[in-house]
Write a structure and sequence with these properties.
23% of the residues lie in helices and 30% in strands. By secondary structure, the protein is of the alpha+beta class. A hairpin with a 2-residue loop joins strand 12 and strand 13. The chain is globular.
Length: 256
């Protein structure tokens, strides 16, 4: 699922991808973008993302799905740039609601509340549920660029998934209205469930089209984070995070 690697005719991008993977493992992501280096265009940034994914899978990880990012009004305003972009989710970074996360395992850990879906065998949406998306919230370039975001895999650091009893058909969420992020009992953000008017279907349709540009496609069972209409929030050791829908607490994690 990681897709083809970078062409052998692009050795500089090969070297950058190897550097990106090393930086990620050292929890200092994207050091290239803090230096006076050649700027990447979006196609080059996606090529780096694809090659880093290949290196990660070669090292024993696996792609578990994708995220749609930089699409909702909260993040667009916060980042100062507009997508959408896509990035990969990795199996080793998926957590379950109620887990404790070590703050030291991340680079400036930040969270978003958003809705996710699973892809069915026929390519449609099998189910939907809320998640806590995790981020290495580091931008080194000034100004921030979509190329840096894409090459850094959408700054994704995994996700905390709801328990199975929360995972229900997409239609069950049609009457839901409000997604809320609470940290230490204080409401940090609240708004609509979906980042776009077309909701999960629009997000998955866009993702499918964009993946085809890179010779990729969604597979049955893939996890897709559909993008958040809310903002991204840094968290600290001791913080308790809750994502709720219409007042029901559905996904939680503790930061240690």
């Amino acid at each position: 699922m990681a897709g083809p690697g970078i062409s052998v005719f692009e050795p500089e991008l090969h070297a950058l991808a190897a550097r990106q993977w090393q930086d990620y493992r050292r929890r200092v992501p994207g050091t290239y973008f803090g230096e006076s280096q050649a700027l990447l265009d979006l196609d080059q940034a996606y090529a780096v993302q694809i090659e880093v994914a290949r290196l990660r899978c070669e090292a024993g990880d696996a792609v578990a799905g994708y995220k749609v990012g930089c699409i909702g009004p909260g993040v667009v305003e916060q980042f100062g740039m507009s997508g959408p972009i896509h990035a990969r989710l990795f199996r080793s970074e998926l957590r379950t609601s109620g887990e404790t996360l070590a703050h030291s395992a991340y680079a400036n850990l930040a969270i978003e509340g958003e809705m996710a879906v699973r892809i069915a065998a026929n390519g449609t949406i099998a189910s939907a549920f809320p998640v806590i998306e995790l981020h290495h919230f580091v931008f080194r370039g000034s100004p921030r660029t979509l190329a840096e975001l894409v090459a850094n895999n959408g700054i994704n650091a995994g996700a905390v998934l709801a328990h199975d009893h929360v995972v229900t058909p997409l239609g069950d969420w049609e009457t839901a209205h409000t997604l809320t992020v609470t940290v230490n009992g204080k409401t940090m953000d609240s708004g609509a469930l979906w980042a776009t008017a077309g909701g999960a279907v629009e997000a998955v349709d866009w993702l499918s089209t964009d993946l085809r540009r890179h010779g990729l496609s969604l597979s049955p069972g893939d996890l897709v984070l559909t993008g958040t209409p809310l903002g991204l929030h840094p968290v600290s050791p001791g913080d308790s995070v809750i994502i709720s829908v219409d007042g029901r607490d559905l996904v939680t994690c503790l930061i240690a």
